[in-house]
Amino acid sequence: MNLNQRSCHLKVRATFGALALLLGVMLADSALAEDGKEYPGSMCKEGTDGYHQIRASGDVVFDTTGNALNISTTSSRYVTCPLVRDNEGGITYAAVSIYKPSSASFMCTLMSNPYFGGQGWYTTKKNTAPAGLHLLEFDVQADTFIPGSYNLWCLLPKTVAGKKSGIYHYGIVEAGGQE
């Protein structure tokens, strides 16, 4: 990637980050304290679905800018990405900044899991747009339980013509208690 392309990518990434922050602030209830968290793609690790892929392949790598990238030219790869849950108000906004090398589907699922097991909730976003940088924004749901965890699960498309798919960053905004 040459310097002009790198500069363009950084400008687009900054724009997506600013857009995500602006949307989170605009949609927030002013009576609630907000707690936003942003994570680099390098927080993710390669996962398996337990059926098609029994163990990690080693095809998910991390670059020096914190992106999680699929280097496989033959297969999509799963990643699982942690999210810290430290407020009781639930998620008010969630998004993932992705790059895809083709119009192949890029899919992510956001999950809320109860601490003692049982049925939580999940919401899935799929992007089938042309190649490029995209922001997947999730439809969030109210939590009916307080303790538990969040997780992000994504399927990264295969590398096409030397261009790797990946997660640049992801984040959530949680509603807090009354100010």
Explain this structure:
By secondary structure, the protein is mainly beta. The chain has a single domain, classed as Jelly Rolls (Sandwich), CATH 2.60.120. Helix content is 14%, strand content 44%. It has 1 helix and 11 strands. Strands 1, 3, 4, 6, 9 and 11 form a 6-stranded antiparallel beta sheet that branches. It has a 5-stranded antiparallel beta sheet with strand order 2-5-10-7-8, with no helix packed on it. The longest helix is centred in the N-terminal third of the chain and has 25 residues. The chain is elongated and about 45 Å long.
Question: What descriptive keywords fit this protein?
Answer:
14% helix; Jelly Rolls; 11 strands; mainly beta
Topology record:
Elements: H1 3-27, E1 32-40, E2 45-46, E3 60-62, E4 68-70, E5 77-83, E6 91-100, E7 106-114, E8 121-127, E9 132-137, E10 148-156, E11 165-178
Antiparallel strand pairs: 1-11, 2-5, 3-4, 4-11, 5-10, 6-9, 6-11, 7-8, 7-10
In short:
Helices cover 14% and strands 44% of the residues.
The average pLDDT score comes to 81
Shape: elongated
Number of domains: 1
| Estimated share of beta-strand residues | 35-45%
Broad structural category? mainly beta
Order of helices and strands: HEEEEEEEEEEE
CATH 4th-level superfamily: Galactose-binding domain-like
Q: What is the first-to-last residue Cα distance?
A: 47 Å
**Rg, Å, rounded:** 17 Å
Largest beta-sheet details = 6 strands, antiparallel
Please state the second-level CATH architecture. Answer: Sandwich
